[in-house]
Amino acid sequence: MWLADAATSRFLDAIIDNIPAAIFVKDARDLRFLLINKAAEQQMQCSRRDVVGRTNAELLPASEADAYDAVDQEVLRSGVMHVGEGVFRTPDNGDRLMHTTTILVKDHGVPRYLVGISEDITERRANEARIVHLAHHDALTDLPNRVFLHERLVEAVAAQRRSGGLVGLLCVDLDNFKAVNDSLGHAAGDDVLREVAERLRGCVREDELVSRNGGDEFTVLQPRLGSPDEARQLAERLIVELSRPFLVNDQEIVIGASVGISVAPQDGESADLLMRHADMALYRAKAEGRGAARFFEATMDARLQARRSLERDLRLAFAKGELELYYQPLLTAGDERISGFEALLRWRHAERGFVSPTEFIPVAEEIGLIGPITEWVLTTACAEAVGWPGDVKVAVNLSPAHFRKQNPVFAIARALAESGLAPSRLEVEITETVLLNDSESNLAILHQIRALGVRIAMDDFGTGYSSLSYLRFFPFDKIKIDRSFVHELHSNAQCAAIVRAVTSLGASLGVVTTAEGVETVDQMERLRAEGCHELQGFLFSRPVPADEARALLGVASGIRDVS
Prior knowledge:
The chain folds into three domains: 17-125, Beta-Lactamase; 137-296, Alpha-Beta Plaits (2-Layer Sandwich), CATH 3.30.70; 317-552, TIM Barrel, CATH 3.20.20.450. It is 47% helix and 24% strand. By secondary structure, it is α/β, with parallel strands linked by helices.
């Protein structure tokens, strides 16, 4: 059924009046308003009776009226629809951003009406701006993120190529920040990171950019650097500022920072290269003791490539089963009988030859390979020792990094169960670093290991500042006197006194004392006279492969092969 004309008119009026966008209809001849809907009334904050029959000039400030009139005249002249955005000022609702489409309606070729459809996009644009901001800023600190930094760095490098000058890039990494999260929780760590961001902002100029790259890593971009010394001075200010205590939950926390610096164009003419070189310089700063700033040097790249090559080769060697265990005997001081062997990790590289454990074990710790390697060592050493005489023990070193990453108790229990070795024939050696880091948790782990029936030795005893104090916390079965004291036993009275004190302490506590690094008969005799229980060193034997260790067990006493 078709609607009558009056009904159709009311129907269309109702639709137009309820469209959420503001609709304006003007007479094309004099540009007076003929109609506005409810949304237009809300936008203009006045009723349609106050609008209909009037012009822009009669309703709006002169500058706004002129702008709208210019659009209307352009549409009348060209007959082409106009789309634009502009600010509409309201008395009570502030400035609103409007997206407006203006259309010319003709009747038999004669312009009759101008129809405007206007949508308030203020919130939409604000939301879009927030999304863009979040995409380019760190949510925790509200600093620019890595994406924003890279964009600005690309611009700075391009400007440097056009106009000359220098660009500085400083990579800042917090020292000892992990301890904050571990001891006080991540909420406290977040508080520290926010404070770090504020301190960094306070150190830079208006044209310099501070960004957070993630974790505890920050970057400062100096787009117009006067000289490399300016970058050095800023780095020193940052280190001083971040070394001041942080107050978190009424506790003072000291962390510090290390800084790596690269400068364009001498350290690279691309954003990616500058970032890479600043990272290398930062790595060097942390490796040299932290709390320092280092500029990139060309030799760092070669060292980094060598380090990456070592990492790659170590992963491959472990996967292919190319690591080996050598065994160095421990002898009873009285009769020089083999009481056990220390299992020592060796890596025979196809091109480098033997790689020193002091070189590859720290790498294994840093890349997270130390856990699997230690499990393999435990399994292999226990399987080997089960074939030795029943009173001969095997000692395995546990890395502090293993304690940080996972509980070693399970690996020890599995190695014992798979090999069938009596737990009392396995000794695990730790250094005091294990107890320095998260001592309460690690002490609990040591008690779990002891509960298995495994013996526990403190290695390198006397080299740390608190070795003695740990004897109060845990009943070690053995303390190993560090080779540095044995080496100077005859030439340094203090070393001799320390050895005497340790052997006396061991005797009073009922703890076995083992001297490492014994190389001469005089050292052996002196240690025997001081009451040391066990001896280990090149005087008796170097570390040897498993088959040679089995052969050594056939020697009654007095081993002297130092070849």
